[in-house]
Amino acid sequence: MSNVVSRLAGRRALRAAAAGAVALGLLLWWLLPLGDAPPSGTMTLSTGTRAGVYQKYGALLRAELDEDMPDLKVRLLTSAGSQQNVKRVATGQADFAIAAADAVETYRLLGLPGAESLRGVARLYDDYVQLVVVPGSDVRSVADLRGKRVAIGPPNSGVRLIADRVLRAAGIDPEKDISPQADGIDTGPERLGKDLDAFFWSGGLPTDGLNTLAERSALRFVPIEDELVTKLHRQGGATRYYRARNMPESAYPVIQNGTSVPTMAVSNVLITRADLDPRLVEWVTRTVLQSRDGIGRHVHSAQLVDLRTAIYTDPLALHEGARRYYRSVKP
What is the C-alpha to C-alpha distance for residues 323 and 120, in angstroms, rounded to an integer? Predict the structure, then answer.
């Protein structure tokens, strides 16, 4: 009898082990795209300016990619921002980049080199337009910027693209009616109240460069009212990606004193080119989605990266590698 019991127990153990192996295999199939070994080689990711969210997000994403693909060397490139990032990917100077949807669409509508090769990987998070002055400033609206020294972002940045459009919607010629300055989030905060009256920034919430300044200086946000967004929409083209939004009071508690700020937002997209290896793009897509919580602990806006919305990379079609990943995890 003991031998029979022993054999039965052995069979049960074998069945349990087999079931465990199947479960492990399924888990590995889900975790490892196509069941392949991780890609190797080199890839380049174009990010943004120092103290901006693009740069910080890119550095944290590289750490996650290093962990998932230890034989892949990820090189980061700082940049002026969205416009330069789109051009770099389209012309082969970078493999991946973060860019605002309006900058991507502008590049496409202008028919610039390589525009037809651009593809989407994932929708990430929203940038909010932030117009900043010192508390005692007489600037209460965008129209009040006339005659002022205003930082509108570096050439080829997403900030410059948006600031120019917002100013024109308010009846201000950015070349004639203000003293335009080319500062971004890396230099604009330091000059505010000295030789700058205001500066534009477009970035995820919150942005480290503004948080740092708020800790030692008083600031105030100037509202961008709904009617300006409506005027922008009437222009057509890439302006359809602007949405009227309120910057929540929790974004910069020290500055906002419990009040939200009317402004506008535009979505960010991780982009690549059609000729990138689908297997590499699939792995990158997987890392972007599965690293959300880890990166989100350091970059608050990254917490908004979500599988349900990541596939909406308008105005770009999904890269085949990204499509494979989304299909593999579809319920």
Answer: 10
